[in-house]
Amino acid sequence: MFWKSLHKALGTKLTFSTAFHPQTDGQSERVIQTLEDLLHACVLDFAESWDSKLPLVEFTYNNSYQTSIEMAPHEALYGMKCRSPIHWDDVGERTEIGPDIIEKTSDVRPRAQLKDKPRKTIAEAIK
Fold first, then answer.
1. Is the distance from CB of 122 to CB of 40 less than 8 angstroms?
2. Long-range CB contacts (< 8 A, 24+ apart) of 43-51?
């Protein structure tokens, strides 16, 4: 089988799963739960326009520390930490360009940090 041969040559482990039965080693389930929590927080916070905030959710996920790789996915892919709009105030003139982005990014991150709390607690925290 192609995939088994490829992963054997790469020295990685391949665990198959099927639609509606993704049980493997728990990685898929954990990622799905994390993304579900991020989306849930986004919908609660931006009820009317949550879909327009999806790039911010993606940005938050890609720049959040992952224990499995001991760094953020962005850092793993590019070899350096992401300089988010929050850090632009260090640069000077760029702060004039992105205050709206900084505000939106700052609003999303605390919501993402609530992901480990029960959904009832999240709803109460946002009120």
1. yes
2. 44/111, 44/122, 44/123, 44/126, 45/107, 45/108, 45/111, 45/126
End-to-end Cα spacing for the chain: 53
For residue 89 the two structure tokens come to 């105030």
How would you classify residue 103: left for phi > 0, otherwise alpha for psi between -120 and 50, otherwise beta? alpha
How large is the angle between the packed helices 27-45 and 99-113, nearest 10 degrees? Answer: 120
Domain ranges of the chain: 24-126
How far apart (Å, rounded) are the C-alpha atoms in residues 73 and 81?
9
pTM for this predicted structure? 0.53
pLDDT tens digits, residue range 93-113? Answer: 544 555 665 666 666 566 666
Cα-flanking dihedrals φ and ψ of residue 57, to 5°? -65, -45
Long-range contacts at 61-65 (CB < 8 A, ≥ 24 apart): 61/34, 61/35, 61/112, 64/112
